[in-house]
Amino acid sequence: MNYLAHFHLSYGNDDLLIGALLGDFVKGPLKGERKKSIEQGIFLHRKIDIFTDTHPLLKQTHQLFQPRYRRYAGIMTDVAFDHFLNRHWQQFHQQPLSIFSKEVFLLITTSDHLTPPAKYQAENLARYDVFANYQYWQTVDAALKRISQRLARDNPLASAAHAMKLHYKALEAIFLTFYPELQAHVSELRQEFS
């Protein structure tokens, strides 16, 4: 899952939302160096990624792609799923996406708990209104091209959006089946935090 999904699944608890962002920037064991609830957000981010990466439906989905993309299929579907979450937002959240985005962006851009790279990412997400722009497939393409440039080794991500577009309807159907399962899993995990 990419940022929109992580924030959506952590919504309702500010510290979980902060942890949802930090989950991409804090590596290694959690040792109590941050507030417990923020570390729970990082833990939740990791559990979401594990559930997604190991889910049989997603493993099957990756077979849609040509072999050269399969190593990066997890990244590809994470980004595409933010697009589908945007497109079907009202099915998963009562609040309009524009209001949700403003709340999340205000929280993450003013937080004192972020590392400098996470703060930079928060500012970019807000500056470019990324969640609203995920309605456009061009945003998926642009996101994958940026990720491609950040990776050390040569990779095919710069052309991945085009490869995925060939399977758009199948990917959308998979998302609509998978995301409620992920929501149910996260709901159970969040109950353990109480």
Features:
0% strand; 73% helix; 194 residues
Short description:
73% of the residues lie in helices and 0% in strands. It has helices spanning 3-10, 14-22, 36-54, 56-62, 67-70, 73-87, 89-92, 97-110, 116-127, 130-133, 137-150, 160-165, 168-193.
Q: Number of helical segments?
A: 13
Strand count, sense and closure of the main sheet? none
**Cα separation of the termini:** 24 Å
Task: Provide the helix percentage.
Answer: over 70%
> What radius of gyration results from the CA coordinates?
16 Å
Secondary structure category? mainly alpha
Strand runs, count? 0
Describe the structure.
The chain is mostly helical. It has one domain (3-193). The protein has 13 helices and no strands. It has helices at residues 3-10, 14-22, 36-54, 56-62, 67-70, 73-87, 89-92, 97-110, 116-127, 130-133, 137-150, 160-165, 168-193. The protein is globular, with a radius of gyration of 16 Å.
Which secondary structure elements does this structure contain, and how are they paired or packed?
Layout: H1 3-10, H2 14-22, H3 36-54, H4 56-62, H5 67-70, H6 73-87, H7 89-92, H8 97-110, H9 116-127, H10 130-133, H11 137-150, H12 160-165, H13 168-193
Helix pairs in contact: 1-2, 2-3, 3-13, 6-11, 6-13, 8-9
